[in-house]
Each structure stands twice: as C-alpha cells, then as structure tokens.
Amino acid sequence: MSGEAAAVGRVRSRVAVAFLVLMAVFVVTATLVASHAGHGLDGRALGWVERHPMGWASVAGEAFDVIGQWWVVGPVVVALTLLLIVIKRRRDAEYLVVTMVLMVLLDVILKLAIRRTPPDASGGGALPSDYSFPSGHTFAATALCAALVLIAWPTRWRWPVLAGGAAFALAMGVSRVVLAYHYPSDVAAAWALGAAVALGARLLLPVTAAELEARAAAPAQPVVAPISTVFIDWGRTLMADDGSQAGPMATWTTVGAVEGAHEALARVHPHYRVLVATNADDSGEQDVRAALFRVGLDGLIDGVVSSRDVGARKPDKLFYRAALLRAGHAGVPLPARDAVMVGDSWSDDVAGAKAAGLRAVWFNPHGANAPSGRVAADAEIGSLSRLPEALAALGGPRPVAPAGDAG
After folding, report:
1. Which of 71, 89, 182, 343 is most exposed, with minimal Cβ within 10 Å?
2. How far is CA 93 from the centre of its chain?
3. Which residues make beta-bridge pairs with 379?
4. Segments of the chain with pLDDT less than 70
C-alpha cells in the first residue's frame, strides 16, 4: 500500500469512528423523543425563546425557512452535481447525490415512525412534512454542508467550506427553534444524523482516487493450491543480461547465469515441470537451450516458450495461452491455476501472468517497491535460492507426467 493510500485508510478509520459517535447521539435523542422523556427540556427552551423575542432573529429565521424549502435545496444540489461533473469530479458528484437521496429517505421514514407533533400545531398530519422529528430543514442543510466539507477536504478550500458549512447548518437549526417550528431535540437529532449520513455515504462510496487505491491496495490472500508447472523468465531472472550484447544469447561472447539459479533449479526441477517463458525476439527454443547449455542449466529445463516462436510477447494473454498449451498434454492446455510464473518484470511476469489466471512470484533482487493498484504478486523473492520455499508456500508440487513429455 502506498503512503497516500495508507494515509487515506487512517482517515477512513477516523470517519468511521465519527459516524458511530454521531449515530449514537442520534439514537439516544430519538429514544428520548419516542418515549416522551425530553419534553420538559424542549418546553423550557421554547418558553425561553418566547419570553425573549428577537425581531431580527425572526426575520432571519423566515429567510432560512425559504432557503431550506425543497424547491430551493433541490436545484442547488443539481447545480453542484453538474459543476462537479464539469470539473471532472464525477465520483464526488455521485457521492453528493447518494448523500442527499439517503437524507430524503431517512427524513420521510423517521417522520412517519416517530410522528411527533410540531410545537406550533395542535394535531398531527398525514404527510411526513407535518411531523417535526427530525427537523427536515436542519437535516438537509447539515447533510449537504457535511458532504461538501468532505468533498473539499483534500483541497485548499477545506477550512473555508468547513467554517461556512458549520455556520450555515448551525444557523438553520437555530432558526427552526426561533420560529417555534421545531423542538430543540428535533434540531439536535437532525444535526447528528445529517453529519452521520454524509460520513456514512463517504464510507460506502470512495470519493478520491487515493481512496480507491486504499480499498484495492491491500493484497488479496495468495491462492494456495498444488502446482504442476513453473514458468520462469529467461533474461535477468535465469540469465544475466545487462543489455550490452545483441542477437541470440547463444552467440554472445559472454553468458552467465543469475546468482542462485543453479541451486534453485536443482531443488525445483525434481518436483515441478520447469519451462522458460521469455520475450526473446531474437532467440527461438533451440537458441535458448544452447545458451542454457553454456551455463549448465539446460538439463534442469523441460521446455521453452519464446516470443519469437509464439508470435506474441508478455504480458499479452496470447503468450500465456501459448505457454499453457505448451505445458499441456495432447493439445489440451494446462489449467492456469496449476501454473506459476516467476520473473523480474512486474508488468510482464506479474501483472501479465495474473491477468491470464496464473499465479506469480516476483523476483525482486533490488528491493523495488511494487506498483500500487489491484494487482499483487502471490509471492516475492529477493534471491532465486528462495524460490523452492515460495513455491511450497503457494501449495507445493502435484504429481506430474514424466518431464520428457514436456518436449
């Protein structure tokens, strides 16, 4: 996992904790309201507001009442969604829409479930809007502002949006009490639930590319199953190749095996079928075998799959299909799950093999960092001498036909 993805993972953990705390606050408040345990406190708060009239507060409250109407909030959400799409933040747009849809659904469900009569009404109504718990205006304002804060958090606008959003949601909630449209507990529950909905939607939907990486970067557990065939890369995995010599390797002035190659193949070959799988455009099977003969490895190899002979190169799936066919029997390809590819190239030998259904052992003698993303090697070795242990950890050998059948 990259540093950025790890950091995002830590942030998501904090988001989850905040979500749980806010949901706990809401549940406690809803329980008190449903059991009529909080009416005394609500009544005293409304009584204080009535005894201390503030003309300017009522005017502001009426303005917020208009701002919080669905025919104002709806177009604002649509406009923000379109803006996010235009600036190529489609995942943010999806997240905003999901947050507001969840808010609307929960508002209707909770109003019908609690059926709390508003302070300024003598009886309940048949529509969700006729009930006061939770405060719909406050719920919508808080969910919207919290979602915008989370969207803006990775940018330099995080603090202005946080300050503005918190002030707006706070003012919206206070205005509902000032106008006696809602009890304080209606507003408190809406504040908690609005923020919780935004956080919950964030947990469900990754907002940023880093969050997508954080979800995918944790490597899947390697498949542990018996292995019949080991494909191993030629250049820079079995044979040394510094790029200074051209043409078929068999004709090079100097050839050499990678350190540990003899030991590894001597331990692996008695238990697995071993085939070289190489992007050797200048060398066919006989050329590869001739080069292996020069370093004493030819007797430890059962076959060769060369890009020159196949007409395709790793990581192309066609190459791996040809390799599996070469390792098969009587024209029937070897099942990909029975094979492991060993090589130093992440794209060719790990990503390519995994895409073709094979397992992959990454030969990484220099300790390079694995590219971030969904692909993960099933095992990683820094020395070929560790190959037998890596194969054993992935399931070990299964009985195979005599090595001569590999051709």
Report:
1. 71
2. 18
3. 361
4. 1-11, 37-41, 43, 45-58, 120-129, 206-221, 372-374, 399-407
CA distance 237 to 245: 17
Q: Which of 157, 20, 139, 189 is nearest to 92 (CA)?
A: 157
Residues 200 and 275 in one domain: no
| pLDDT tens-digit map of 346-390 | 999 999 999 999 999 999 998 888 886 667 899 999 999 999 999
Domain boundaries, position 109: 3-217
| Structural domain contains residue 120 | yes
Helices marked H in 69-183:
70-86, 90-114, 136-152, 158-178
Could you give the CA distance from residue 33 to residue 10 in angstroms, rounded to a whole number? 35
**CA–CA separation, 278 vs 285, rounded Å?**
10
- Residue 351 in tokens: 């990503």
**What's the number of domains the chain is made of?**
2
* b/e burial code for range 100-136 (CB count within 10 A of at least 16 → b): bebbbebbeebbeebebebbeeeeeeeebeebbbbbb
pLDDT in tens, 196-255: 999 999 888 755 544 544 444 445 567 788 999 999 999 899 998 877 888 888 888 888
Residues 111 and 43 in one domain: yes
Domain boundary, last residue among 160, 195, 217: 217
In single-letter form, the type of residue at position 13 comes to S
- The structure tokens listed for 344 are 């130093």
What size, in residues, is the chain?
407
* Distances, alpha carbon 372 to alpha carbons 3, 25, 115, 355, in Å: 10, 38, 51, 16
CATH number at residue 313: 3.40.50.1000
β-bridge partners, 362: 343, 380
pTM attached to this predicted model = 0.51
How far, in Å, CA of 316 to CA of 334, rounded? 17
Please indicate, yes or no, whether residues 80 and 210 belong to a single structural domain of this protein.
yes
